Amino acid sequence: MKKETVIAFAGNPNVGKTALMNAISGSSLQVGNWPGVTVEKKEAVFVRDGKRFRGVDIPGIYALTPYSLEEKVARDFLLEERPDMIINVIDMTNVERNLSLTLQLMELGIPMLLALNMWDEFVHLGGEFNISLFAREIGLPAVKTVARSGEGVAELLEEAVKLAEDPVVPRLPVYKHMTDTMVDEKIRETARILEECGLQGRYPLHWMSVKALEGDAETLERLERCRIEDRFEPLREEIRTYHKQSVPDVITDIRSGYIKGLLRSCYKQTGKTRRQWTDLIDSVVLNTFLGIPLFFLMMYLMFRFTFEGSAPFVDWADSFFTSFVGRYIDAGLSAAGAADWVRSLVGDGIVGGVGAVLSFVPLMAFLYFFLGLLEESGYMARAAFVMDRVMRSVGLPGKAFVPLLIGFGCNVPAIYASRTLDNEKERKLTALLTPFMSCAARLPVYALFTAVFFKESATRVIFGLYAAGILVAMIIGLLYKKIFARGEEAPLIMELPPYRIPTGKMIWNAIFQRTKSFVRKAGTLILVTMVILWVMMNLPYGTTVDKTLLGRGAHLIAPLFQPNGFGKVEPVAALIPGIVAKEVVVGALGQMYHETEEESLEEDVPLRPFHDLGQEAAGLGRAGLDSLKGIFGVRALSAFDVPEEEETGLSRRIENDFTPLSALSYMVFILLFVPCVAVLAAVKHEFGWTMLFYVLLLTLIVPWLVSMAVYQGGLLLGWG
Amino acid sequence: MADRKGGSMAPLAQFHKGARVIIQDIQGGPHFIYRLHALGLFRGKSIEILKGSPGPMLVKVGNCRIGLGHKQAMKIFCSAEE
After folding, report:
1. CB of A499 within 8 Å of any CB in chain B?
2. Residue A601: what pLDDT?
3. What pLDDT score does A35 carry?
4. Contact of A307 with A635, CB cutoff 8 Å
5. Is the dihedral of CA A241, A243, A249, A252 positive or negative?
6. Is A433 helix (H, G, I), strand (E, B) or coil?
7. Chain A residues within an 8 Å CB radius of B71
8. Is the pLDDT assigned to residue B3 strictly greater than 50?
9. Which of A99, A221, A694, B16 has the largest count of CB atoms under 10 Å?
10. Among B63, B66, B68, B74, which would you mutate to test the A interface (most chain A Cβ atoms within 10 Å of its Cβ)?
């Protein structure tokens, strides 16, 4: 006997599959990606009556003809991996349409069980349903459930155990049009053709026959090597002439006719369908005049919540790691007599790296909370709808606005937010454009240079840089659309789910699972890169900065930047540490110009573990208060506060080495240059190595070209 | 154009908010038609228009709300429900 029974949770999108999985599996839910694609895969193992089950939440599908990557993943899983059982989750408030998928799933020849979900809403809307009659008619066990409250879950599991012990394959539907079985005969004939080719056992023949007759491109592709395509056409022709409709039309007709007949006997809609909340809210939210302003308001709230809310925690986590954990580890190493370079590697490389990863955790958690709220409530689909026309002009769908906007705060969560897009290609393009959104960490660099060269017009210059980032992203988006996606603009056809109040559990899962996955997957890469960068910046150990690997490398490549106006060793060398975090460029410039900041006095403060721990705890408490103040206070957004720059040795050196024009060119370069380690790790985590390569390529070439254009253009205009 | 009953037929995009219409014909590639079928939009279906042009449309079929771009709504031919 097999060790575990694999159950696929299948159904239309937004029918509560995930909520049902949550209710069944409790905390054992694992979130990951389907291999090779950016589609989220949720799995959970649970034991019931001594039987081990593995639940797999497959992406929501409307039909078994894939339209998006999600649907292809779902169909491939059902077809190729053949789960032992399907739990088909049905949204009872949409039972008619949901059953159309059920009929298709029945043809796969996999034991199946129906969860009649959202039963409470269905009853609330005045629905009546005879479950036992329905189950008998359709020939499948069916259980009413309310996934959000967990109602009916125990009964559902009971049925699942029964079905696992006695796997019954659903009976095949008969494709009857009224009383005539002509189509059914043609399907059986097709099935015989497929059988001749030796396909039985590999694929569900009945299902495949329907698809072959419909002319489904992917099915025909699978059958290509059998060379039987020309045997289908006469059968299709017969159906077409007889019914005077295309085959897919006839099949849809038959299915919907069957469902109507089935429901007539066991389903009743008593009482009037009342005007629903959703329609009322939609009449405001989707209003031609109010829709876009409301969307912007929502985005402002999201931005404020995510960045203002998390900033105090990010600061706390950062200082906790560098000045608390780091200090104690350093003291320990020093007491153990560790060499200087070991202390530096551990302190700057490893502890710094772990600290960097963990300081993103509050940011991710706040973002996932808000995104979870937007998605679970149903607003995200509206955002896509409202922004569709605007964003489409740059080749992106409406939803892409959300991740790009988040990018202005921080690119890392922006990469993850691109997950909300529906189509893989659009998701990748969005991720590719995200690094051009000027994140908050780039501000200190702008501040340093504008304070020296553009005192009067600092705000305008910085605003211009933000705009330049958007402009570059738009141009690349348009180029992509013209070159790679010519004429294949994805049409706007989308379901807008009804508004629902998200449950705390759903939101908590969205935050916890995804944040955990970030730390585990992206964390490792960040750490490794931090160590590599430490090696570059510190070896050979003990020499001055310009003698290190970094300094020597900068010597080599500096001439490349002659046309950009900053072809000197110092500014070029300072770019590389910028990969650790963009704001590090400022410190690195200082080091390169030997204007070391005053050493912090921490070293002399004696270690007092209890006192220090208390201080950290108090700091965490203060962070909580500051976070609330940040979210609900009346202050303007601090993510766009330009830090004050005082005249220092560094600014005098910069004044000597740069001209206003080359400073501008340098800022443009920083704006567009390779994003920080954390962003790169996020790209790798979400999209894999190939995408990481493209991001690197784009963020190396584009900044060089654009900043050169700025510098050379400026020279032409006589600004040099 | 005329539908089977002889009534007049027009693209969905030309109907206004609040109208109830019946789908008579869908034009376009197989991919497009499959998708609409899967979402419950096919010949003979009665739909209610929740939001009309300008911009994308929102229609209600059964208890589902489906958003459609203008281009897409131009390919779905409907007649007013009596």
Report:
1. no
2. 44
3. 66
4. no
5. negative
6. helix
7. 491
8. no
9. A99
10. B63
Mean pLDDT value of segment A86-108? 94
The minimal CB distance from B62 to the residues A97, A283, A388 is found for: A97
Q: Please list, in sequence order, all residues whose beta carbon lies within 8 angstroms of the beta carbon of residue A512, skipping any fewer than 6 positions away.
A: none
Q: Which residues contact A646 (CB under 8 A, 6 or more apart)?
A: none
Could you tell me how many residues make up chain A? 720
DSSP A375-388: HHHTHHHHHHHHHH
A65 to chain B, any CB pair closer than 8 A? The answer is yes
**Nearest CA among A639, A637, A671 for reference residue A449:** A671
- Angle between helices A229-243 and A205-214 in degrees, nearest 10: 70
Predicted local confidence at residue A683, as pLDDT: 92
Copy the structure tokens of residue B77. Answer: 């031919």
User: What is the helix (H) or strand (E) element at residue B61, kind and residue range?
Assistant: strand B57-61
Nearest CB to A491; choose among B42, B43, B71: B71
CATH architecture of the region B10-80: Roll (2.30)
Given a contact cutoff of 8 angstroms between Cβ atoms, the answer to whether A485 and A395 are in contact is: yes
The answer to whether the CB atoms of A389 and B55 lie below 8 A apart is: yes
pLDDT digits (tens, 9 = 90+) for A643-653: 666 666 777 88
Instruction: Note the pLDDT tens digit of each residue in A581-599.
Output: 787 787 777 777 765 444 4
Please state, in angstroms and rounded to a whole number, the distance separating the CA atoms of residues A162 and A153: 14
Contact A491 B51 (CB under 8 A): no
pLDDT digits (tens, 9 = 90+) for A467-512: 899 899 989 988 887 887 665 666 788 899 889 888 887 788 778 8
A493 contact residues in B (CB cutoff 8 A) = 32, 35-36, 39, 66-69, 72
Give the type of residue at A523: G
Q: Do A97 and B40 lie within an 8 Å CB cutoff? A: yes
Q: Give B37's contacts in chain A (Cβ within 8 Å).
A: 63, 248, 252
Cβ-based neighbours of A520, under 8 Å, separated by 6 or more: none
Which residue shows structure tokens 């609900």? Answer: A632
Which residue segments constitute the domains of chain A, with CATH numbers given? 4-165 (3.40.50.300), 182-269 (1.10.287.1770), 295-600+642-716 (no CATH)
The most confident of A196-205, A383-392, A659-668, by mean pLDDT:
A659-668
Nearest chain B residue to A247 by CA: give it. Answer: B30
Find, in chain A, the residue whose alpha carbon is nearest to that of B40: A97
Answer whether B58 sits within 8 Å of A385, measured CB to CB: yes
pTM listed for this prediction: 0.80
> Chain A closest CA to B25's CA: distance in Å?
10
Among B59, B63, B27, B24, smallest CA distance to A12 is for: B63
- What are the residue boundaries of the structural domains of chain B, listed by start? 10-80
- Residues in chain B with CB shorter than 8 Å from the CB of A273 are 63
Q: How far away is chain A from the Cα of B33, in angstroms, using its nearest Cα?
A: 9
pLDDT in tens, A40-56: 788 888 888 888 999 99
